[in-house]
Write a structure and sequence with these properties.
Elements lengths: L2 H8 L17 H22 L1 H8 L4 H19 L6 H14 L5 H25 L1
Helix pairs in contact: 2-4, 2-6, 4-5, 5-6
């Protein structure tokens, strides 16, 4: 017997057939959560590492802007840790909007916000494809 025939023979009669996995992943929920957590973790690292170059190149990055950057990085790390919660994906979207809004403090934050909003939109797209 081949693989599908053997699975058919091993399944008890009358048992409902499991829906086929659309993505082919063993655990698509976990994969999507990992993608979101990885994206937010990378964003937090980039935000923290961007402070000094922005201050050196861009000029007037004040204490308020640095505080906002650190706060957004901490929020991204917290969200990366709670991706199992149903509200984490919408909260990640709000975080991208807040980063773009931080562009009012310095133009480079708007650039970072647009870049990470595009990355987050792609992560949402991949999540939608994986989970069906």
């Amino acid at each position: 017997m081949t693989g599908p025939e053997r699975e058919q023979a091993e399944r008890p009669t009358g048992a409902p057939e499991a829906p086929p996995r659309r993505s082919g992943l063993r655990n698509p929920d976990r994969a999507a959560r990992g993608l979101g957590a990885g994206t937010l973790s990378l964003e937090a690292i980039v935000l923290l590492l961007a402070i000094q170059p922005i201050r050196m190149v861009g000029g007037d990055l004040g204490g308020t802007a640095v505080g906002v950057l650190v706060g957004l990085a901490v929020a991204a790390m917290v969200l990366a840790g709670v991706m199992r919660r149903p509200w984490a994906w919408p909260a990640g979207t709000v975080l991208q909007g807040l980063l773009m809004l931080a562009g009012l403090l310095h133009w480079s934050l708007l650039v970072l916000g647009v870049i990470f909003a595009l990355v987050w939109a792609y992560a949402l797209h991949v999540r939608r494809v994986i989970l069906g």
